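Supplementary Methods, section 5.1.

A reviewer requested that the exact input to the structure prediction be made available. We therefore reproduce it here, unchanged from the version used in the analyses.
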Amino acid sequence: MTVKEQVLLILLENKNDPVSGQELANRLNCSRGAVWKAVKELEAEGYEISGVNKKGYTLRRSGDNLSRAFIEERLGKSGAGLKVETYAVIDSTNSLLKRYATNGETGDMLAASEEQTAGRGRRGRSFYSPKGTGVYMSFLLHPTMPAGEAARLTTLAAVATAEAIETVTGETTEIKWVNDIRVRGKKVCGILTEAQTSMEDGTLDHCIVGIGINLYEPCGGFPDEIKDIAGALCSEEKKENLKNEIVSEVTLRLLKYYSELSEKTYLEGYRKRCFCIGRDVCVMTADHEARESNGPDRVHAHVLGIDDECHLHVRYNDGFEEYLSSGEISIKA
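The structure derived from this sequence is encoded token-by-token as follows.
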């Protein structure tokens, strides 16, 4: 951990109370000059720190930048252990962890970034992830389970993220099957799960769960192609330490549900938030078009519920019932 990271943690622990430069230097076993340099770097990142002669440094207001040290500190206090990496910008957190897995990484990992230049969504789509608007995280996991059950990781990730958003922001969330999280009727989060299967026994070699959350609306609004469906958690005003709080809370909840995977403790939370239950929907194909090839009576359906594998139980207009394990739906007005 760098001097800057350690100084930030100490100032966060003593927010609004001064900590002398000498005390910081003694605790970190470094020079006061190194402490001063660390403070200046933090100020450049948006942290408001006042320095008073003979009193010390006081953190008045936190910035909203990802801090590996903060996240590791939160996880460590809860006994959660996994490798953490944070970035200001990266091509894709999913792609990064895929490279780690390909190169032989066997431990569980979290990678989080403030911007993605090649963010990826479901079915080959891009995921809008510009600087200053969101936080994008991916988890490399090594579950012991058949490949056909990988969708359970998407489900538990959706519940963990919804709960984290509610805890940190106080907002009420909804889940649109399978993995979109909505706040105030707008999509604020998407989840992409990618799995690598062992050719020997058909079990999962590893799984990567990517989660992208819109924290702030971009300057000028969302692009035309998503402006009608996309939303953000907060107004344009930046919230103190929001990225770190969200990433930490999502991680803690995801790891909890992951440790209880066989017990399916996430199911109740998923069903409670799945707003499409009891609604009329249009079932879509992989290319996002209505399933006309199955006939008009197999396009429009009524959602009856969610089974224990989080398959969507629907009844079509012709009375035929089906459990959907993948695909997409649109909600009929």
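The first strand starts at residue 48 and ends at 52. These observations are discussed further in the main text.
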